[in-house]
Amino acid sequence: MALYYDAASVLSSEGGQGSLKSRIYGPSTVKSNPTQIYALISETAKRDVFLKDVLDRAGLLHDEPKLTPLLALLLCHDHFFSKAGIAAPVKHPLRQSIERHKARLQSEFTRARLRRKCASVDALKSSLDRERAGLARPHPRWARVNTLVAQDVEAMFASLPGCKRKLRLDDVLKVDQGTRSYCYDEHVPNLLALSPGVDLTKTNAYRQGELILQDKASCFPAYLLLGNESKENIGDVIDGCAAPGNKTTHLAAVIGETGCTGKIIACERDGIRSKTLQSMVEKANADSVQVLAKQDFLALDPADARFKGVTHLLLDPSCSGSGILGREDIPKLALPEDPRTTMKPTTNGQPGSKSKKRKRGQGEGAGAPSSEEVPVATTGNAAPDEEEAPVPATEERLQKLSNLQTRIVEHAMKFPAARRITYSTCSLHEQENEVVVSRLLASPIAQTHGWTVSPRSQQVDGMQRWKHRGVRSKPDDVDDQNKLNQEGLDACIRCNPGDEEGTMGFFVCAFVRDLNTEEDSRGSNGSGARNGDANGGDREEAWEGFD
Ligand SMILES: C[S@@+](CC[C@H](N)C(=O)[O-])C[C@H]1O[C@@H](n2cnc3c(N)ncnc32)[C@H](O)[C@@H]1O
Questions:
Q1: Mutation probe of ligand 1 site: the residue of 269, 314, 324 with most atoms within 8 A of C-beta
Q2: How many whole angstroms separate alpha carbon 33 and alpha carbon 533?
């Protein structure tokens, strides 16, 4: 029945990019009524954990090899909770795949209801609604005070009716009390966390560039790059992948605070995004920024006299974008165990009815989870234009991105006076993060130029205190060329989407250079990375990842 296939497709990577509503109501391939699809998804999302329990205990997927976990969940929702039952003719195979197990399902349903001490189905619904409301974590909005122009931020907040200053993020997020409040962030200077109800976009301060909407995680690179550098060590700075310019303007603000006179050279390859960058720079009054529009960073010659004073580089290249929070919930559903696959069912990333990876005769129609990522199911406040919908990442795409990211940082390592570099992504994939760091450390360019990671103990105070560090999912005994040791992992900074910190998913690592290293020396960098071909032997030029 189209409704269930459509809902499954919308929830999976097949449903395209963007928010839940844009997937359903936008120009899409869904055949059934969009309002019905939306209702089915949002109601199932309230009851998924309960339904998963019922389905697992009834062992339905053992007996129905043509059902995917996601389809089973959606169908069972309507079977139990919709007044009209499953929206399909009585003889339809999908409907039959549930109804022929009616007795077993009903008995597990009743047991699960009684375990929750609910005397009726209505009581169960209310209990599940309450549970869901308790679990939903409010997400703050983040705004950076642009110290290049900001006048009196406190006075601006005082002009917002009922908006109070708090001390801690937890207090700002107490939305159940209808509070409108803000607090200063505990890690990044001049960053504000705002309760979800505070809308700054209509304030003069926002219009005049005094406040810039920017996720906390996105403020880490500029702060990590320059936050504890002394004035005499900072010359010129390159932002190699700059548009739309959030990190560029942050760099300009941090440099402005130090009183340095160096300039920021902001490179952007894409023509249209270069225009956005230019206008953001103007709005932020970032006079120290010189935009190199339509300029490929890889085409800059590090030996060019224009760059001889470049001491710091910030690289935030295109990535899969898997850490980006959706602007609207794409629910991550708890799915029943799939007995036909050894992989645990994932919530999103669950294919609809037609997984291309399945082979005939191996549970056709079963829908083994794909390794592709889809947007995370939380509401974010990424700055306009910075974070667009993520690109689903296959292994092959991740490899290409990883190669390109490695190349970009390697290029940065060639600038003769460079002493510090940050590399960041809004990806959750190790392949684009820790693996890139490891490959870079093992590269001849890092070794001959004396580049290592900046250890946690030497990072700027707020970043030292940040507790979420690099990860390695493979067990220690697995032989892996691209493995960081504990010190290397600790040097890496991660942000996990949807956790108590209220940030998007993000990764950043700083590299520092021992300027005494001889150009042609081959000494170990002591970083724990194993030697190898940093480029994976594959020069990928043209994959257009997430921008
Ligand atoms: C993730 S976005 C950067 C976001 C930006 N740092 C910010 O905070 O607003 C990546 C940008 O890098 C640009 N880009 C990718 N590869 C590039 C290259 N080789 N040279 C210059 N720009 C590049 C993309 O066009 C895109 O605008």
A1: 269
A2: 52
Ligand 1 atom closest to the CA of 545, numbered from 1? 15
Two structure tokens written together for 364: 């056709």
Please state which of the ranges 112-126, 166-180, 419-433 shows the lowest mean pLDDT: 166-180
Q: Where are the domains of the chain?
A: 2-135, 141-213, 234-323+383-513
492 is catalytic: no
Q: What pLDDT, on a 0 to 100 scale, did the predictor assign at position 27? A: 60
Q: Is 249 in the pocket of ligand 1 (CB under 6 A)?
A: no
Q: Is there an atom of ligand 1 within 6 Å of 297 CB? A: yes
Confidence band of 212 (pLDDT split at 50, 70, 90): very high
Is the distance from CB of 321 to CB of 387 less than 8 angstroms?
yes
Side-chain half-sphere exposure of 241, counting CA atoms within 13 A:
23
Tokens of 152: 């009196």
Least confident of 34-38, 174-178, 205-209: 174-178
Indicate whether 454 pLDDT > 80.
Answer: yes
CB of 317 sitting under 6 A from ligand 1: yes
- Active-site choice (267, 319, 426, 509): 426
Q: 278 versus 356: which is more confidently predicted?
A: 278
Q: Is 141-213 a CATH 3.40.50.261 domain? A: no
**How many angstroms separate the Cα of 491 from the Cα of each of 211, 286, 433, 463?**
30, 30, 12, 10
Contact 96, 79 (CB under 8 A): no
Q: What percent of the chain has pLDDT over 70?
A: 78
What is the mean predicted confidence (pLDDT) over 495-511? 91
Name every residue whose Cβ is closer than 8 Å to that of residue 502 and which is 6 or more positions away in sequence.
139, 140, 142, 169, 173, 193, 216
**Cβ-Cβ contacts under 8 Å for 458 (sequence gap 6 or more):** 512
512 Cβ below 6 A of ligand 1: no
Partner residues linked to 494 by β-bridges: 507
> In this predicted model, what pLDDT tens digit does every residue of 298-307 receive, in sequence order?
999 999 999 9
* Residue carrying structure tokens 């001390």: 167
Please tell me the distance between residue 274's alpha carbon and the centre of ligand 1 in angstroms: 10
Q: With a cut of 90, say whether residue 341 has pLDDT above it.
A: no
Q: 165 - beta bridge partners?
A: 182
Contact 250, 277 (CB under 8 A): no
ipTM of predicted assembly, 2 dp = 0.99
- Identify the CATH number of the domain defined by range 234-323+383-513: 3.40.50.150
356-404: per-residue pLDDT in tens? 333 322 222 222 222 222 222 222 334 433 444 444 557 788 899 999 9
Question: Angle CA(352)–CA(353)–CA(358) in degrees, nearest 5?
Answer: 100
Cα(317) to ligand 1 centroid in Å equals: 5
* Dist CA 436 CA 405 (whole Å): 7
